[in-house]
């Protein structure tokens, strides 16, 4: 089963897939209980939730075409989350990786010892979002 939390104007890009469309009215429903929703109210970025990898690559292409970046695989943990919790967790991950990638880009090619140490820390460890924000502040403050 594929569940799509995708705005109406982007849905036609997914005509080749059998998707159960949902919106904000389903935010408090557990993922494993979601069914088709006929309304079209959206608060969060578009997201596709899939149970298996069968159409994963094609779905990723279609998501990118409509400017969305969130494809989520079903896991034993997230199937018991509500749609809202799933979206919240995905947004946290998305923000983390965007900040991480931004800092890596900023620090590459910098020659100061501190910049190289930060880059090494980011690339070689699982760094918390809090630590990334600290590094971001120091990079801006010291113009690294």
Describe the structure.
This protein has a 4-stranded mixed beta sheet with strand order 2-1-3-4, with helices on both faces. Helix 3 (83-107) packs antiparallel against helix 4 and helix 3 runs parallel beside helix 5. The model has no long low-confidence stretch (mean pLDDT 84). It has helices at residues 8-11, 56-65, 83-107, 113-124, 129-142, and strands spanning 2-5, 19-21, 47-50, 70-73. It is of the alpha/beta class and 144 residues long. Helices cover 45% and strands 10% of the residues. The protein contains 5 helices and 4 strands, in the order βαββαβααα.
For the structure shown, list the relevant keywords:
alpha/beta, 5 helices, elongated, 144 residues, single chain, 4-stranded mixed beta sheet
Topology:
Blueprint: E1 2-5, H1 8-11, E2 19-21, E3 47-50, H2 56-65, E4 70-73, H3 83-107, H4 113-124, H5 129-142
Parallel strand pairs: 1-2, 3-4
Antiparallel strand pairs: 1-3
Report the helical percentage.
Answer: 40-55%
Unreliable residue runs: none
The SSE string, one letter per element, is EHEEHEHHH
Largest sheet: 4 strands, mixed
Strand fraction: 5-15%
Dominant shape: elongated
**Cross-sheet strand order for the largest sheet:** 2-1-3-4
Query: What's the total count of β strands?
Result: 4
Q: Mean of residue pLDDT?
A: 84
Give the C-alpha Rg.
Answer: 19 Å
> Which structural class is indicated by helix and strand composition?
alpha/beta
Number of helical stretches of at least 4 residues: 5
Q: What is the terminal separation in angstroms?
A: 47 Å
